[in-house]
Design a protein that fits this description.
Blueprint (H helix, E strand, L loop, with lengths): L3 H4 L9 E4 L2 E12 L4 E12 L4 E5 L6 H10 L1 E7 L8 H7 L4 E4 L3 H5 L8 E2 L13 E6 L4 E7 L4 E3 L14 H9 L11 H5 L5 H13 L4 E3 L10 H8 L11
Parallel strand pairs: 4-5, 5-6, 6-7, 10-11
Antiparallel strand pairs: 1-2, 2-3, 3-4, 8-9, 9-10
């Protein structure tokens, strides 16, 4: 019988799943995350985008299995490995080992969070432009008091890639204590949003966060990929407006 950690995932795991032309996701295993106790089971998800010349942009890596590595070899060459916020770094070292020719790009403060696990040089994700992928992806760092999350938009497929700015846990995939916790945290599907504790870390940067969300909405994404829970395959701009309505005090749309 599957335990709570298996229940929350999105099988099949550790395999490429096409999302749009030149865009794939990989659903990974569950992790335990949260306060020292209790720790809630979280699903994990990676996004891979093929850029010009067949180079691959790997966002928030999940475990690299032999079968997955073989699948990746068929779609392109890993060139950029991305840690999009300070708590999404765990599997980056094994990807760096497997693809030593790739550049590792880390959001601010990952080194502080990761300690000795990130013991190699990496490039920082702190600007909106000046990256090798500028012709294919828009980059938007959004800084809060605890962490900076870097959002990416792929105009070709109208795909927005977020990490923890929205979490959306399906009730059927959570045991009852975790359903209650997800609801209390504001991250229960179908109304997943930024976790309430994370919102507090943007209290001083609320205008900047709202401006960033407005830019994302203006990009008019068709889909929004997130790292934890059910992602949004359609109506992406509408989902952003729903998920971030708390910034303007609006009620949930009918």
């Amino acid at each position: 019988m599957a335990d709570a950690r298996d229940r929350v995932t999105y099988p099949p795991l550790n395999t490429l799943k096409p999302v749009a032309e030149n865009v794939w996701i990989v659903d990974g295993p569950s992790i335990r995350f949260g306060m020292p106790w209790p720790k809630m089971p979280f699903s994990t998800r990676m996004t891979i985008i093929r850029l010009g010349g067949g180079t691959l942009f790997v966002h928030s890596p999940t475990p690299l299995t032999d079968d997955l590595k073989a699948e990746i070899a068929e779609i392109g060459k890993v060139r950029h490995i991305i840690g999009p916020n300070r708590i999404h770094y765990w599997w980056i070292p094994e990807w760096r080992t497997a693809y030593p020719e790739a550049d590792v790009w880390l959001a601010p403060r990952i080194g502080e969070q990761a300690g000795g696990r990130i013991d190699f040089a990496a490039r920082e994700l702190s600007a909106e432009s000046g990256y090798p992928w500028d012709d294919h992806l828009l980059t938007l760092p959004v800084e809060g008091s605890f962490m900076t999350e870097v959002a990416f938009f792929h105009p070709e497929s109208r795909t927005l890639v977020l990490t923890d700015f929205i979490e959306n846990f399906e009730p059927k995939k959570l045991a009852w204590p975790w359903r209650w916790l997800a609801r209390a945290g504001g991250v229960l599907d179908p109304d997943g949003m930024m976790p309430r504790d994370m919102r507090l870390t943007f209290s001083k940067q609320r205008p900047q966060l709202k401006a960033a969300v407005d830019r994302m909405i203006a990009w008019n994404p068709e889909r929004v990929i997130i790292a934890h829970g059910r992602w949004y395959a359609r109506d992406g701009a509408a989902e952003l407006k729903r998920a971030f309505r708390w910034l303007s005090g609006a009620q949930r749309p009918a």
